[in-house]
Amino acid sequence: MTVAIDIGNTNTTVGILEGSKVLSSFKIPTAGLGNARGAAAALFKGRLRPFLGQCSEGAVYACSVVPQINPRLRLLVKRVLGTACKIAGEDFCVPLLNKYRIPSQVGQDRLVNAYAALKLFGKGLIVVDFGTAITFDIVSRKEEYLGGLIAPGLRLMQESLNKKTALLPFVELAKPIELIGRDTASSIRAGIVYGAASLCDGIIGRLLEKECRGYQVVVTGGDASLVKSFSRYMKTVDEHLILEGLAMLAESQKTGMRKPY
What we know:
By secondary structure, this protein is of the alpha/beta class. The protein has two domains: 2-91, Nucleotidyltransferase, domain 5; 97-244, ATPase, nucleotide binding domain (Nucleotidyltransferase, domain 5). Helices cover 35% and strands 24% of the residues. It contains seven helices and eleven strands. The protein has a six-stranded mixed β-sheet with strand order 6-9-8-7-10-11, sandwiched between helices. The chain has a five-stranded mixed β-sheet with strand order 3-2-1-4-5, with helices on both faces. Helix 6 links the parallel strand 10 and strand 11 (236-237). Helix 1 (39-48) crosses helix 2 (70-81) and helix 3 packs across helix 7. The longest helix is centred in the last third of the chain and has 26 residues, at 184-209.
């Protein structure tokens, strides 16, 4: 059994997996992990304690885009499960040939997603992740990580409209019921969701026309299901792609595949 942890800018997702199958998962606010006595840490402890005797040494794997949280995560895992937490980029490498101009600039979450998609769906991929940012990552037919694109995510759009305007309220995201909004809330929802879908379709379409002709599109992330039905290209959705990738990497470490690139 593997515990996989994805520390994002907004939320941290924790999964319990048997092989690469997700048995259970939950989300907690990332900011809350910094407080050992806070609600987020308490939820983390409460949800993981039932697995205390089922996680062997080295069975907790994580990736993080919030480095300052990593030491706190290591402490929590050690206290709750009695084992070490291995973090991508610090304790192990994702075995992909990284063609980024400056390889260290690539977020480990993007590499884990690319690795998981390659293992699950094959070569030649456009991997789209709907998180705080929307990322597009390209895996070539030679199994290389080529790079990608980064755009604002739905939550950033939502918060920016509220914080940077005088009159627009904070509106909870949901599927729009109409393209032309008849009130402020429906107008914001339509603008964000249709806007994100159109942004993604525009980028994916450009990639498929030239650099990524014939590639498969794989979508993941918390807001993927919200946008999927409004997109031409987002047909294959794997909500737990990054957790599955971490579990695969855990297994590869156990079997001795530690080749870094």
